[in-house]
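A reminder from the course coordinator: this example appears on the midterm review sheet, so study it carefully.

Given structure:
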């Protein structure tokens, strides 16, 4: 089978690596000729806005999928008329817009932080009264890793946040404001839905960010009860089903007093699921490919306790990384740049204590690009 992937970053690369094992080959639509997929797939280097190139891209492909959620929905719709394209344009446009996303969660009875739509400075003042202060203001589209966001702590900060997010009023974009959630921790759940509607879920994962960038994921999330797992599965399952979704979807959640609140969904494989490569019978990448090509889903079959530590900025020397006991090293073949995810290491251990010991050992090595936030 030959699969098209829209986007050639590390997620595309890990999809292609998983697919090669199954004998699949790949054509990747990626404007950047330096993409991480360039050595393991055919590259189609056109701008994503060039929907007229869809015909040439689709030629000979069995299915198309994506690894970046900001692919123009029009391109996905155009491709869908030529070749099975999963997920489809509807799911993608819902996930691209924080207001549509939150509205969908609410319509399905999924708990969310208090939220208001903001299109003007007046709306932002009204939102403060509705959702309460402090609040988090987010652009509806194109935000990632904490970009396009501002925290407003008091009424005096409202005008400043507006100026910051709109470039002093020059570039007003649709936004939302959310009540600031004092969460116990951040969790995510990854699920996959097949063409026939069957679903599988991975265990809840605990996530730790620094400056908006994911640094550490631990799965299963320590202490997460079976009830919490089913609450998360129910929420994600309802979202996927209501969108007629096919493929892997991730849902980011806040845990507050033992309950879950949905923050956002990603219509793709997700950074908090990278541990599945080394800990699961079927990784998120393989299950995504199985789903979008109509193959039977694989059991997650997660074993032990896993951690994933992102490498951000630059890769330490391979000679050092491979010397870390138990580390399963994944490099994305990317050039270094501040804030850029260039690789990760996974650990899979039989007990949580053994996992903590591995993380402590890695910490002592003080390697560039690796910062392990404390879990307290
Ligand atoms: P997002 O882009 O929505 O995933 O937000 C990035 C990060 O900002 C999240 O991982 C949280 O750490 C934090 N954050 C987002 N929304 C809220 C909120 N309503 N209350 C508190 N923290 C938030």
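Designed residues:
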């Amino acid at each position: 089978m030959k699969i098209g992937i829209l986007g050639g970053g590390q997620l595309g690369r890990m999809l292609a690596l998983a697919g090669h094992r199954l004998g699949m080959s790949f054509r990747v639509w990626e404007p950047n000729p330096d993409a991480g997929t360039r050595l393991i797939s055919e590259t189609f280097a056109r701008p994503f806005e060039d929907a007229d190139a869809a015909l040439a891209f689709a030629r000979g492909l069995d299915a198309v999928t994506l690894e970046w959620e900001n692919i123009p929905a029009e391109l996905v719709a155009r491709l869908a008329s030529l070749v099975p394209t999963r997920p489809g344009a509807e799911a993608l446009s819902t996930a691209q817009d924080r207001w549509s996303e939150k509205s969908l969660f609410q319509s399905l009875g999924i708990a969310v932080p208090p939220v208001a739509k903001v299109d003007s400075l007046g709306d932002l003042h009204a939102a403060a009264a509705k959702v309460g202060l402090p609040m988090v203001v987010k652009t509806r589209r194109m935000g990632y890793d904490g970009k396009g966001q501002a925290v407003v702590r008091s009424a005096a900060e409202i005008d400043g946040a507006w100026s910051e997010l709109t470039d002093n009023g020059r570039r007003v974009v649709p936004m939302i404001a959310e009540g600031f959630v004092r969460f116990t921790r951040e969790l995510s759940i990854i699920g996959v839905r097949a063409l026939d509607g069957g679903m599988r879920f991975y265990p809840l994962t605990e996530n730790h960010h620094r400056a908006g960038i994911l640094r550490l994921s631990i799965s299963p999330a320590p202490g997460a009860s079976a009830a919490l797992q089913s609450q998360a599965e129910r929420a994600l399952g309802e979202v996927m089903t209501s969108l007629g979704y096919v493929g892997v979807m991730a849902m980011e959640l806040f845990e507050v007093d033992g309950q879950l609140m949905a923050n956002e969904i990603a219509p793709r494989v997700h950074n908090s699921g990278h541990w599945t490569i080394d800990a699961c019978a079927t990784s998120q990448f393989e299950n995504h490919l199985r789903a979008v090509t109509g193959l039977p889903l694989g059991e997650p079959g997660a074993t032990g306790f896993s951690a994933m530590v992102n490498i951000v900025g630059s890769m330490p020397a391979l000679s050092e990384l491979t010397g870390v006991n138990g580390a399963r090293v994944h490099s994305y073949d990317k050039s270094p740049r501040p804030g850029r995810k260039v690789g990760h290491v996974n650990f899979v251990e039989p007990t949580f204590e053994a996992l903590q010991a591995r993380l402590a050992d890695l910490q002592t090595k003080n390697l560039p690009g690796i910062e392990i936030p404390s879990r307290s």
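The two ends are 46 Å apart (CA to CA). Residues 113, 136, 143, 146, 178, 180-181, 186, 209, 212, 252, 263-264 surround adenosine monophosphate (CB under 6 Å).
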